[in-house]
Every structure is written in structure tokens, then in C-alpha cells.
Amino acid sequence: MFPMQNFSPLPPTQRIVKIVRDKTLAIMKKGVSFLVTVALMALASSLVSASDPSPLQDTCVAIAEPKNAVFVNGKFCKNPNLTVAEDFFLSGLDKPGNTSNPVGSAVTPVNVAQIAGLNTLGISAVRIDYAPYGQNPPHTHPRATEILTVLEGTLLVGFITSNPENRLISKVLYKGDVFVFPVGLIHFQFNIGHTNAVAIAALSSQNPGVITIAKAVFGSNPAINPDVLSRAFQLDKNVVEYLQSRFWWPNN
Known about the structure:
Blueprint: H1 12-47, E1 62-63, E2 76-77, E3 105-110, E4 124-130, E5 135-140, E6 146-152, E7 155-160, E8 168-173, E9 178-181, E10 187-191, E11 197-203, E12 211-212, H2 213-218, H3 226-232, H4 237-245
Antiparallel strand pairs: 1-2, 3-4, 4-11, 5-10, 5-12, 6-9, 6-11, 7-8, 7-10
């Protein structure tokens, strides 16, 4: 026989208080978990933003970095009280670029390097000139979506979607037509007309960056091991070495 244990059940009022307290604590735990989840989602969404961060002041005109300055993601700012109209101005975009080069096109950039006032504003532009049958070869902008408007001529344009589909989205554009190239995707423009062509494009970063595919792969410094490229492109090693020996035009 086990000894009898002396149980003293809680009075009804105290039992009710205990039940209410336990339920409240459970609800509070769920609420905290929900708030943490929402906060993490908000943080993640801010980290994957498709454009430059929003500025925290009216202007942040870029200035040369002070000697031994701490690295910043962008440019150091001029005192806003010292900004002038020239900080936000550039002339000469009406002048055509020199298309006498191997790819038959010229890109004239208008980013924070040309207009210091673009710093932190998350936008830039380019003028692109194309000789007959010239092209802006396949490339990508790692930090920007691009929207292009044809001013003169006829362009075949397109971009390729990511793996595994690698679908080509392509269209022929005429004067006044507009086309969008999503951020990070490989894209191109090709002048299929018998005359010169001109386009203006806006990009969703003050410094969109550019990676020209052929130049990056076959013109890297130092060169990629030919055995790597031979297998990757299913080419004879001699062909790879020949391509690596070529001069790849830095069009962008």
C-alpha cells in the first residue's frame, strides 16, 4: 500500500485566475512570435530591394573621398548648404558617340561619376549610339533595371531569363518604342537597320554597373584557366585560348 498523499485543490476562484493567467501567457507568446516573424520579413524585404536605398536628406552631392576615409557604400556628401546647380547638371548628351569600334556602338553614361548630385538618388541614364548593324553586346547590370526608348532607327532587343528556362524575350523596336530589361538579366540591342540608331535608357541605380559577357569571360584579368572554359562552353582548348588572346572592346 502506498501512503495516502494529502491533496489540497485550489479554491474555485484561484483556479479561474490560474486558467486566465495561463491562457494570457500563451497568447502573449504567440503574439511575440508573430511580431518577430513580421520584423524578420520586413528586414528581408529591405535587403532584397531592387533599387538603391532611399536618401535621408534632400541632397547628397558626391565629393572626393577624404584620404584614408572609411569605405562607404556610395559617395561622401558635400555639405547641402554648399550645393549649386552645376552639381545636378550635364551638357552634351545631344552629341553622338563614336561608333567606329569592333562592336559598332557607343555608350555615353550619365551616372554619379558624371553628375555628382545623383548620389543616393537611385537613378542614372545612358545614351547609346549604333552604327548600321552595330550592337550593344550581351551584358548585364547587377544593380539596376533598365528602361530603353528608341529615338532613331530600328533595334532588335532582348533579354534571357534565368536558369533553368533561359527563355529569350525579344522584340523589334522602332522610333518611339520602349522596352524594359529586368535587373541582373543578360540583354542586348542590335541595329538591324541600314542607318544609324540612337536610344536613351534610364537605370534604377546611381551606379548600375555592367558586365559584358564575352569580355568578362574571355577577357578577365588574370585569365580564367582554359580548361574551365573549354568544358563550360564545350569548346576545344585551342579555340578558348584564341578567344582569350583577342581584344574585347569595353563598350560600357
